[in-house]
């Protein structure tokens, strides 16, 4: 049998190498150290697994802080760097917050202002729907009917007469702070500009809350378009009659006068 060195294509099998090179088995302490080293490499993996799957009240380990934790001034904190001693600074004059620039006042606000921002006073209400929404008026009115039934009909009624279920129930319970819903078919509401109706939906009127956060800009204009349709299809309603309270002050044994609807 030829030895390992004499073969043309030697095959280095482990047992052959041990026999040819006369390698001895390593001592037990070396084997034990190798096993311990291999097991030690599993400890970080076990810690990572445990940290990812258990719940703890302690914050996560934050190795790279970047700018997450830095010295800062809180709201209303004093600051000696400025002459007035305040950390909170007023915005530069003419600054417009991100997302507050109104490029189309007619569409977004329903009225026009002197400097083009919502913060300034109203100069004129838009008299009609925006040009961009008048292209498909039938679809806009249909959408407005849907939104009106969701948000408006519960107080103003299906036909806009102010006889919604919530309004009727509040009157039945004689709620002291309830303001009767407006009849949208009166001549006073008919004479208002489209932009004024849009602004009322956006910002609210008296006890009526603002719906600017719930209803999109297009849907608010759609409700206005549907309201105009209701006004065209229904006769003009009479203005509500305000009942004046009696002049004489009632005695303790008399019933208090009926509250005048606001």
Descriptive account of the structure:
The chain is mostly helical and 262 residues long. Among the domains are: 14-48, no CATH class; 131-233, Cytochrome c-like domain (Cytochrome Bc1 Complex, Chain D, domain 2). It has ten helices and two strands. It has helices at 14-21, 28-40, 42-53, 105-108, 137-151, 153-156, 165-172, 187-190, 194-203, 217-233, and strands at residues 111-113, 122-125. A two-stranded antiparallel sheet has the order 1-2. Strand 1 and strand 2 (122-125) form a beta hairpin. Helix 5 (137-151) packs across helix 10 and helix 9 (194-203) crosses helix 10. The longest helix has 17 residues, at 217-233. It starts with 13 loop residues before the first helix and ends in a 29-residue tail after the last helix. Residues 243-262 have low confidence and may be disordered.
